[in-house]
Model the fold of this input.
Amino acid sequence: MIQDWLSKLTDVFKKTKDSNIGKLFALVDEEINQLKSALTKTEEWRDLYKAEGTTLDLMGENLNQPRGQTSDEIYRVLIRGKSALNLADGTMNKVIEVLSLTLDCHPSEIEIKTLKETGDNEPAALMITKAPLEALNRVGMSPQQFAQLAQKTVAGGIRVALVNLQGSFRLSIDPNKLEQGTDGFSSDGTDGGTLGGVYTPQKEDDLPI
Done:
């Protein structure tokens, strides 16, 4: 850019970068580049997935969603969840849809059953039989926080009694035969069962929901 500016000068000026006017252009160019960088970041941070810090706080305030002590990653989840709750109608399919939108995962990664389906007689109670472990680990959300999020999503008067965080991995029923199903060992890193477990931080805070 500096050379382009210099080329537009009349011949009475020395058109080199080390000339006085060249050095002046260099200072102006640096300021312009810093301004461009700031404008680019401002534009990028309008995206929820890229925004950080106080910019995220402003997004949350627009939805009346406080941050509390949560990290940027979990706060993004809460903001998405606050927006997705407008879709909830109390049905299990909608609960799954809202949770998947909130955690940015596919609905097939979440399964919900009533306790009566599992043989328990407690009415108005649900059990999450399959949870999106990868999505939880990605944002650093603990099992307790996920249960709190799920409870906020279901209809009033419904209790989330249990969240199953077990993986799908299973050993073969035949000790002399390798498990070939989708729940066995992986053959190429893209198939096979998953192990259970979720990252749990040393200090755990309740979600501000």
User: Anything to note?
Assistant: The first helix runs from residue 2 to 7. The chain has two domains: 2-44, 53-163.
